[in-house]
Specification:
The strands form five sheets. This protein has a six-stranded antiparallel beta sheet. It has a six-stranded mixed beta sheet with strand order 10-13-14-3-15-16, with helices on both faces. It has a five-stranded mixed beta sheet with strand order 18-17-19-21-20, with helices on both faces. The chain is α/β, with parallel strands linked by helices. Helix 17 links the parallel strand 17 and strand 18.
Length: 657
């Protein structure tokens, strides 16, 4: 069973949020954008409990609303189909929902926050399409209704087919009507003749959901390893060990129990002469002393050792060069242990390989916490491995090391929208996603000869050329300035600071695209995820390579600008370009540029590197350190437009219908 889609309504910041899910799903966005709210909504969907809800769980604190979390499942197994056969849709999918609301009776006051836990009502629902016509709806077919419908027989018609003629002209009984209605629906109704109907709380349904829905394991950003490492019958580590004991062959259990009985005999009176003499002597002396105070007798009794007792005693020790209990290890190792326990637990409850019974959804807040860069890259590989084995991983992150531009379809970008109401402001989470199907459709429309040849794999290969860890930084930005290379990436922030545009404070990223050839790909990904992009490049008008000129024209056409080169630096609301190159066209705007360039070369030669990017950065620092700071006119205009960039619309080419 695969979670395909979720619709969240009225839960915390999620007024109305729809999300499509793949095998691996990375939630990104600013702090307080709603990432954790979405994950917690999923936790409620799979593990419903009134303890997870309070007044703040309702959107805008409005407890008159109903929390509604809806999920669509596909790829059901044979066993799933058998268990859920009464709840499935015609296409074989399963659409269900959990809801929560505050119980309110007419005339009853709204419950206080202290009373809410007892006044919360959780319901579960499933959805199936039913015929629009009441006389074809199974729940409406009864003797009374049949009599009324038969009075207007001419109205019993769909798609020019008469139901009266279908049943032979005579009024059927209730049972006959029900059977004929099923046949009529199969033979004569089309998709538009149905409407969705939600059915709440059918008998036995909660148990059905518990037995069939995927296991949902939620790992919050802050979780103590001691909670996971202790052994109880209800926590994952305890269940793992109990399962191990349960799986011990009976003959081995008999040997172990015999040994434990022998230990008991050595410690307690039940052992008679086998009891340790030291315990016997201590008990005797205690009683001799006690008799001087009052007539009574003491017995030293040790708790009888048993498998149950032993299962409460294990500790987890880790040896990373120094053997110690896991609670005393670093937070990074502790977090890795938590992941390991829960992963192993999921295999226990879900099965592995051909024995797999249920899928597991791992939902993890900020897995990068306490992890160094190499460990973060390892985490991503582990997540990919889990996701390729029928399970699903959902995680929120602030680390670009856990993202990959080539896997843009995994990214779920969450942003917060502030809206002004009649009395006060409200906030709503908004979600952006970019599917692989949309990108394939776009490239096929732009290159007709490629139609039918593009696959998910070939698209990832195409975009893997644009991948670099630091380019994923753009997924976390409010807006992005796309530049060709390090020359602009090094220099623009320096000029921006001098102009009073601190790019980091404004959450604006300058992304080095690694050349002009990657810029359109990165632009499409960022733009379709709702991140406004400003493009800066060299037109290279004097270059003899036609492909380089062609790429410049493609970038201009993509944002709707004229493609012929201008003689001066071109600056618009969407992009800017230097007619020739950065260093050539800026030279005319910088006083004594030859002296600055020579000085830059002399200084940088000491570092055995006089490359263009470092020289441009040196010049930028020298110019902005003057009093007052000097910023070339073109750079001033470019940064003014880039900082003000707003998202406008999709840049993908739509399929012509």
């Amino acid at each position: 069973m695969n979670l395909s889609r979720v619709h969240i309504k009225n839960y915390r910041s999620c007024k109305d949020v729809k999300i499509e899910f793949g095998a691996l799903n990375a939630f990104v966005g600013a702090n307080n954008s709603g990432k954790s709210n979405i994950i917690r909504a999923l936790d409620f969907l799979f593990n419903p409990s009134t303890t997870k809800l309070d007044e703040e769980s309702f959107w805008n604190g409005d407890t008159s609303l109903e929390i509604w979390i809806e999920a669509l499942f596909d790829k059901l197994t044979t066993e799933d189909n058998e268990i859920l056969k009464g709840y499935l849709r015609p296409d074989g999918t399963f659409l269900m929902a959990r809801s929560a609301k505050i119980r309110s009776e007419e005339g009853q006051e709204t419950p206080t926050s202290e009373e809410e836990e007892n006044n919360l009502e959780i319901s579960q629902h499933y959805c199936k399409p039913i015929p629009i016509q009441p006389w074809l709806q199974e729940g409406e077919i009864n003797g009374k209704n049949i009599n009324e419908w038969w009075k207007e027989k001419d109205n019993l018609r769909v798609n020019n087919v008469s139901f009266v003629e279908f049943v032979g002209g005579n009024k059927p009984s209730v049972g006959e009507w029900q059977e004929k209605a099923k046949q009529f629906i199969r033979q004569h109704l089309v998709k538009t003749d149905f409407k969705d109907k939600w059915i709440p709380n059918p008998k036995g349904y909660p148990g059905v959901l518990k037995g069939t829905l995927p296991n949902f394991i939620f790992i919050p950003a802050v979780r103590e390893v001691s909670d996971e490492a202790k052994v109880t019958k209800s926590n994952p580590f305890g269940k793992l060990l109990y399962a191990v004991i349960k799986g011990i062959p009976e003959e081995q259990k008999d040997d172990l129990n015999e040994y434990l009985i022998n230990v008991q005999n050595k410690l307690n009176r039940v052992g008679g002469k086998e009891r340790f003499q030291g315990i016997v002597d201590t008990e005797k002396r205690l009683n001799e002393i006690l008799r001087d105070y009052m007539p009574a007798e003491l017995e030293i009794e040790f708790e009888s050792p048993s498998l149950e007792t032993l299962l409460t005693t294990p500790r987890l020790l880790a040896d990373d060069g120094f053997r110690n209990v896991i609670e005393n290890k670093g937070h990074g190792l502790q977090r890795a242990v938590i992941f390991s326990i829960l992963h192993c637990y999921s295999e226990l409850v879900s099965g592995k390989g051909t024995e797999k019974k249920k899928s597991t959804i791992f939902s993890i807040e900020e897995p990068e916490i306490y992890m160094h860069p190499q460990a973060q890259r390892t985490i991503r590989r582990v997540f990919q491995k889990i996701a390729s084995a029928q399970d699903k991983v959902i995680f929120s992150t602030h680390s670009f090391l856990l993202l990959d531009v080539a896997y843009f379809h995994e990214i779920v970008r969450v942003e917060i929208l502030q809206k002004s109401g009649s009395n006060h402001k409200t906030v709503e989470s908004n979600v952006w996603q970019l599917s692989m199907a949309k990108m394939i459709e776009d490239i096929e429309e732009r290159h007709q000869k490629l139609k039918g040849q593009i696959t998910d794999i070939s698209m990832r290969e195409l975009y893997s050329h644009a991948y670099h860890p630091t380019r994923s930084e753009g997924f976390f930005a409010k807006s992005v300035i796309l530049v060709e290379g390090p020359t602009e990436q090094y220099s623009l922030p320096i000029y921006a600071d001098a102009l009073g545009y601190p790019l980091d404070n404004l959450n604006i990223s300058v992304v080095d695209c690694g050349g002009k050839g990657q810029m359109d790909r990165l632009y499409r990904v960022f733009n379709e995820l709702g991140i406004p992009c400003y493009i800066l490049f060299d037109y290279d008008s004097s270059n003899t390579d036609k492909e380089i000129i062609k790429k410049s024209k493609e970038l201009l056409a993509m944002v709707g600008e004229k493609t012929d080169p201008q003689e001066k630096v071109f600056v618009s609301d969407k992009l800017a370009y230097f007619p020739h190159k950065w260093e050539i066209d800026l030279a005319n705007e910088i006083p004594e540029i030859d002296k600055l360039t020579s000085k830059a070369r002399a200084v940088l030669s000491l570092a055995h590197d006089s490359g263009k990017p470092l020289a441009a950065r040196y010049i930028a620092r020298q110019l902005t350190s003057q009093k007052p700071p000097f910023v070339p006119t073109s750079i001033n205009s470019i940064l003014e437009k880039a900082v003000a960039i707003k998202w406008e619309k999709s840049c993908l080419v739509k399929r012509k219908i």
